[in-house]
Amino acid sequence: MKLLRSRPLLRWCLLLLGVGSLLLLVLLQHLTDSVQQQNPGFPVLEGPTRPEGKVPSWQTEEIRAGLFPGFPPVLHLCSDLLMGKKQPVTKRHRKLLLKSAPSGGSTELRTQQSRRRQLNNVCSEYHPVRRRRQVRLQQVSRLYVEDRFRLLYCEVPKAACSNWKRVLMVLAGRAQSTQDIPHDAAHYSNQLRRLDSYDRAGIAERLRTYTKVLFVREPFERLVSAFRDKFENPNFYYHSVFGRAIISRYRANATKSALNTGTGVTFREFVQYLLDAQRPVGMDIHWERVSQLCSPCLIPYDFIGKIESLQEDADFLLRGIGAPENLTFPDFKDRNPRAKRTSSRVTQDYFSQLNRTERQKVFEFYYRDYLMFSYPKPFSDLH
């Protein structure tokens, strides 16, 4: 009886393994070609112009969605069945098989295909030349590495990066639970390695074979979140370095106290600094554009998540890389917990302090991010 019950599951497994073998042959052929054409450095073909046969099979437009290098748990289920190990057939297993089938058209897979297609289209417009480019260390300096689950995560501040670092620490075995990791520990003592800390061969191998992940946020909302965090709360570094310079340059008749402490920067003053080509202090990662932080037109990201669908995207990704079942993405806010979360409504309130011309200039500053990640115009009068 048990054998009869497992036959449908075995048929699914054989189908999946057959397709997997074909994909593996394609991948091995690619690796052979790569070794034969190896040269110094760690070249990467630009995302929108890569020839289809020159990238790992899971990175092609047709099949890369959901097929992460860290194979999903359902494939381990198949291997157990074929090896003769006892494995109960449950409803959950059947759902996993259906979701993992190559022809499956789940909402999550279609969403990922759509997001990558949009990114590639925008990159094609801005980087139309077909040529092999060398990745510079600076361009991979924001990528965190998790070797156990073969994951590369590009840090985008104010886009749930604290909680993503907690997840990476748990995946790496440096913590039992995301709930046990304080904010400062996640940022300053996480012991996570960045990709630029590896040698050239290590960087090239990880770029080629690891699941590359990027999470983004609506640009205006991310900007307001950064302003509130750094200028409306006690923060000696940002007040003394940025605040004093901003007040000195953009506030007429500033008081001596304001000039000394750098506290009380207004949102309009902050925007003036942001748009100033001759900024008194440089750009900061908390409001730098994602197109600059993570080089999405150079690094072929396998997974693009959004804060607006954070829980669904994060859980789908964690399932895809085979993360422990008890690991879910945390939803707590431990930094300034009493402060209201920055929402679209809060963002509208802050930008209503600016006039139409100022809003338009900020929109133009983040215009490429809006295009790359399919965010609509936040105000109807923008063009």
Beta percentage is 5-15%
Order of helices and strands: HEHHHEEEHHEHEHHHHHEHHHH
| Spatial order of strands in the largest sheet | 5-3-4-6-7
Biggest beta sheet summary: 5 strands, mixed
- What is the approximate shape? globular
Which residues sit in consecutive blocks of at least 5 with pLDDT less than 50? 22-42, 45-105
Distance between the termini: 66 Å
Question: How big is the Rg?
Answer: 23 Å
Helix-strand category: alpha/beta
- Secondary structure tally: strands: 7
Helix content: 40-55%
Q: What's the tally of helices?
A: 16
What is the residue-averaged pLDDT?
A: 79
How are the secondary structure elements laid out?
Blueprint (H helix, E strand, L loop, with lengths): L1 H35 L6 E3 L27 H10 L8 H10 L6 H20 L5 E3 L8 E4 L4 E4 L6 H11 L11 H6 L4 E2 L5 H10 L1 E6 L2 H13 L4 H15 L5 H6 L5 H9 L14 H4 L9 E4 L3 H11 L23 H8 L4 H10 L1 H6 L11
